[in-house]
Write the structure tokens for this entry.
Amino acid sequence: MSVSTTTAVLREAKAVLERNGWFQGEYVDRRPEFDGVALRECPVCLLGALNVAAGREADDIGMRDDLRPLDVLQTLIRRRGFRRPVHAWNDVKDRTVDDVLALLDEAIELVEAGDAR
């Protein structure tokens, strides 16, 4: 995935979270579906937002050839001393949506600066 594509996916993931809302514990909060809300418009976790941003369903667990945005996020949380996967970072009890949006902003800056290793 190119730098511009990686940046675009990260930016869109942030927009998805801002538009749909943030969720913990699952890829997507399906409860709004019962009220007729499309799955792509339901609140999502960070991975769900990446999925939607990459054109997949929010709950698609098969991250395929477009792992670069996830790799950048994993690099950042490891730099902070968090050794578990991104989904576990998202689901930490005291985590906030602002933490998640700030991580995405940092990831975008890192990719644009060419320092995403």
